[in-house]
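Thread amino acids onto this structure.
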């Protein structure tokens, strides 16, 4: 599904494909999250990485991508990489590079010390943003000055989702893209690729509690959510402000 000229959601995955640049964009993998949870006494199988690696391989196959851009928070720990992060991030880089696809990484707030891994594979870390033509790609954790000539801004960080209530009163939450504008620039917010992140219900979250300082200063109620559910489909919802008034009554 095309969400802007040259930008498509492949199948129903939480990823974006830049058709003119043959570039696949994914955000917020948070590799190593299971180890962080274990340190807090929450034990989960180390299954999220295997799932994400499979999805990335499938997306590369489906789209014919020649490059992949990790849009921040490739790893989870704020500090030095955990043992799980060392093993799984390196395995992912070797897998993608071994398939002939080039790799770029944009720094996220969880990506401290990641240069020690990326440097082994000559993968460039872009900070604070990466520019492709008139498209600027950034993580979204910092409010930065955008390069001149940018017409489209693609970001992650927020882990957006949209909540919906059916006629029986049952509540559902779907990962979603957010589509809006900022001073004439089209803004695209990607959902998290990590299966352990169900996302922040944007239509149930007060504007001042959003994670991204960029989104906190925008008219988030004018943004349109496009929900993705793997193997189910892609669904365009009404604008956030319309949904907000019908779910929680929280002002924008």
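Threaded sequence (252 positions):
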């Amino acid at each position: 599904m095309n969400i802007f000229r040259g930008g498509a959601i492949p199948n129903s995955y939480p990823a974006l494909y830049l058709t003119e640049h043959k570039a696949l964009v994914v955000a917020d993998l948070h590799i190593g999250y299971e180890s962080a949870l274990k340190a807090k006494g929450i034990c989960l199988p180390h299954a999220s990485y295997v799932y994400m690696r499979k999805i990335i391989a499938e997306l590369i196959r489906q789209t014919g991508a020649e490059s992949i851009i990790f849009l921040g928070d490739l790893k989870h720990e704020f500090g030095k990489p955990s043992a799980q992060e060392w093993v799984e991030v390196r395995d992912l880089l070797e897998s993608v590079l071994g398939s002939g696809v080039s790799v770029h990484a944009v720094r996220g707030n969880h990506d401290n010390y990641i240069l020690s891994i990326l440097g082994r594979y000559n993968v460039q870390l872009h900070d604070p943003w990466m520019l492709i033509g008139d498209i600027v790609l950034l993580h979204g954790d910092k409010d930065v000055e955008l390069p001149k000539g940018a017409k489209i801004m693609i970001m992650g960080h927020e882990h957006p989702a949209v909540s919906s209530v059916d006629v029986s009163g049952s509540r559902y939450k779907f990962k979603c893209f957010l589509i809006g504008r900022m001073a004439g620039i089209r803004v695209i917010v990607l959902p998290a690729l990590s299966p352990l992140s169900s996302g922040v219900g944007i239509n149930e979250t007060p504007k001042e509690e959003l994670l991204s300082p960029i989104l906190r200063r925008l008219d988030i109620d004018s943004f349109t959510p496009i929900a993705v559910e793997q193997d189910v489909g892609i669904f365009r919802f009404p604008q956030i402000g319309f949904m907000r008034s019908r779910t929680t009554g929280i002002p924008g």
